[in-house]
Design brief:
Blueprint: H1 19-33, H2 36-46, E1 53-56, E2 61-65, H3 66-76, H4 80-96, H5 100-117, H6 120-140
Antiparallel strand pairs: 1-2
Helix pairs in contact: 1-2, 1-3, 2-3, 3-4, 3-5, 4-5, 5-6
């Protein structure tokens, strides 16, 4: 659990060559759990790296764009306008890198945020993004699974 990191959360994780791995996985976990308080703290730690990629193992693994993870954290904290800017930047960066799986993940998170914000326009845009995700996934042969809720159920 995230509590095992101690009261400092991500701030307590050693800043070494694996920190971006921890930061990206932390952002995913915090988003899945809907933990707004932890999202705010992690957002502040990742913000200095905006516009970059989360790399590890001497750049052998790219977890995604920092903007995508910042968007996930900002959305979890309810800061939708900030999240939207990060998601848009993350999608653009992933597409420039020709990294379709990163773009698909970011579009999925963006659609989730639009649904949470909930205006009629947001719901229409979310549906458009979800259709684009399905098309992109099919084009590259990526099987999509429904996101589990916090209990782990996919129903």
């Amino acid at each position: 659990t995230l509590e095992e990191l101690g009261p400092d959360g991500l701030a307590g994780v050693t800043r070494d060559m694996n920190w971006f791995s921890a930061a990206s996985q932390y952002a995913i976990a915090v988003g899945e759990l809907g933990d707004a308080e932890r999202a705010e703290g992690a957002y502040a730690l990742l913000l200095p790296y905006v516009g970059r990629n989360c790399l590890t193992a001497r750049a052998a693994i790219i977890w995604g764009t920092v903007d995508s993870f910042l968007g996930r954290l900002a959305a979890t904290a309810g800061r939708y306008e900030v999240a939207e800017r990060h998601f848009q930047a993350g999608i653009a960066a992933a597409e420039r890198m020709r990294a379709p799986t990163m773009a698909i993940r970011t579009k999925t998170w963006y659609a989730e945020m639009l649904r949470a914000r909930g205006s009629l326009e947001d719901l229409v845009r979310a549906g458009e993004l979800e259709r684009k995700v399905a098309e992109d996934a099919e084009r590259i042969g990526l099987a999509l699974e429904p996101s589990p809720d916090v209990s782990g159920s996919t129903a």
